[in-house]
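Dear support,

I submitted the protein below through the web form. The confirmation email said the job was done, but the results page showed an empty box. After a refresh the structure appeared. I'm attaching both so you can tell me whether what I see now is the final result or a partial one.
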Amino acid sequence: MFLSEINESVRQRLDDVARIVNDGDDHAVTEVARSEVPHLVGAVWALLAEHQPNELGECPACSRGMWRWQRPWRRPTSPCKAYLSAWRALFDEARDEPRHASH
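What the results page shows now:
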């Protein structure tokens, strides 16, 4: 699969799940929760594993690009954007928008 096809299929799957959760009846929501939540949790864990902070508390995945291409004389910014995005999606109760990105 090409990257654009992977991107489209992931976005479509997330949109499908979000649509069922937002608009489906209780049975559909329960079924999608049982079948999809383990996959979603696994996907988040896999993404965050790539951004696990090192012994200095820096994200090796994010800092690699910054060190190599942008500003080799500066330390990476903190916190890691992947962890910050995950935290906001999971814990930022003040947000008005839904917890999923619908496109």
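Response: this is the final, complete result; the empty box was a page-load delay. The CA atoms of residues 90 and 99 lie 8 Å apart.
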